[in-house]
Design brief:
The chain has five helices and eight strands, in the order βαββαββββααβα. The protein is α+β, with helices and mostly antiparallel strands. This is Signal peptidase I. It is found in: Membrane.
C-alpha cells in the first residue's frame, strides 16, 4: 500500500488549530489592553493639560479607592469659579508650597472678594469624611477628575520601587517573543496520496495549462490578422487613382 503512495506535505494555516486561535486572541487582547492603559494613563491626561495620579487614602471611597489611578484635566485658575460645578471632583494643593495633593468632591461654592484677588472659594469634602475641608482658592486647584483606572496604582508603585527588575522582565519577554517568532517553522502535515491520484491530478493540470496556451495563441492570431488587414487598407489608400488616357487629333493625318 505504501509502495504505491506518495507523501504530500501541506502547510497548515494558523487558524486551523484551536490552540493557535486562542493564543493569537490572547496576544491581541493583551496588546490592546496595554496600549489602552498607556493611552488612558499617559496620553489623554497630557493632551488635556493634566496628569495621572495614584489614590493613597480612602477618604473618597467608594468612588475612589486606594490603588486607583485618576486622570485629571488641567484648568486655569481664572476658569475655576465658572467651570467647576458642585458635585465635580477636583485635585488641589492643600497649602501653598505643599507637594501633596488632595482629590475631593466640591460640595459648595462661595463668591466674594478675597485677599488673593480670586472671586470664589470651593468647599470640598471627601465622600467618606463627615466634615468639609478648608476653603480652596482657585489658585490651589490642579485639575478636574476625568476618570479612574482601578488598582493600576499598585502596579505603578511596584514598578517604581523595582524599576530595574521591571525593565529586565520586559526586555526578556520581548526578546523571547522575537526569537520564537523568528525561528519557529511553519507547521506542516504529511498526507499519503495514491500515485494514481497524483498522476490524474498532474494530467488535469497539464490539460488546463494546454487549454490556456491555446486560448492565448488564438487571441494573438486574431490580433495579427487585424494588423495585417489594417496594413492592407492603408496600402490601398496610398495607391494613385488611374486616369483615362487622352488622345489629340493630328492635323497632318
Amino acid at each position: 500500500m505504501r509502495a504505491n503512495a506518495s507523501r504530500l506535505k501541506v502547510k497548515v494555516p494558523w487558524y486551523s488549530s484551536p490552540w493557535q486561535i486562542a493564543a493569537r486572541a490572547v496576544s491581541a487582547a493583551l496588546t490592546v489592553a496595554v496600549v489602552g492603559l498607556v493611552v488612558a494613563v499617559a496620553v489623554i491626561p497630557q493632551v488635556a493639560g493634566g496628569a495621572s495620579l495614584t489614590v493613597l487614602t480612602s477618604s473618597m471611597e467608594p468612588a475612589l479607592s486606594p490603588g486607583d489611578v485618576v486622570a485629571v484635566r488641567g484648568i486655569e485658575p481664572s476658569a475655576v469659579c465658572s467651570d467647576v460645578g458642585i458635585g465635580e471632583v477636583v485635585t488641589y494643593f492643600p497649602e501653598p508650597g505643599d507637594p501633596a495633593l488632595i482629590t475631593h468632591r466640591v460640595v459648595g461654592k462661595s463668591f466674594g472678594a478675597f485677599d488673593d484677588g480670586t472671586p470664589c472659594r470651593l468647599v470640598t469634602q471627601g465622600d467618606a469624611v463627615g466634615v468639609t475641608d478648608d476653603p480652596v482658592s482657585p489658585a490651589q486647584v490642579r485639575g478636574v477628575l476625568l476618570y479612574k483606572v482601578p488598582w493600576l496604582g499598585y502596579a505603578r508603585a511596584w514598578t517604581a520601587d523595582h524599576i530595574s527588575l521591571a525593565i529586565a522582565v520586559t526586555v526578556l519577554a520581548l526578546g523571547t517573543y522575537l526569537v520564537v517568532a523568528t525561528f519557529r517553522r511553519p507547521r506542516t502535515r504529511v498526507f499519503e496520496v495514491p500515485t494514481s491520484a497524483l498522476g490524474a491530478t498532474a494530467v488535469a493540470a497539464s490539460g488546463l495549462q494546454d487549454a490556456a496556451l491555446q486560448a492565448r495563441e488564438a487571441v494573438l492570431r486574431e490580433r495579427e490578422l487585424a494588423i495585417q488587414q489594417r496594413e492592407t487598407a492603408l496600402a490601398n489608400a496610398e495607391l494613385p487613382t488611374p486616369t483615362a488616357p487622352t488622345f489629340w487629333d493630328d492635323p497632318g493625318a
